[in-house]
Amino acid sequence: QVQLVESGGGLVQPGGSLRLSCAASGSIFSIYVMAWYRQGPGKQRELVATITSAGTTTYTDSMKGRVTISRNDAANTVWLQMNSLKPEDTAVYYCNARPSSNWRDRYLEVWGQGTLVTVSS
Question: From CA 121, how far away is CA 28, in angstroms rounded?
Answer without folding.
Answer: 41
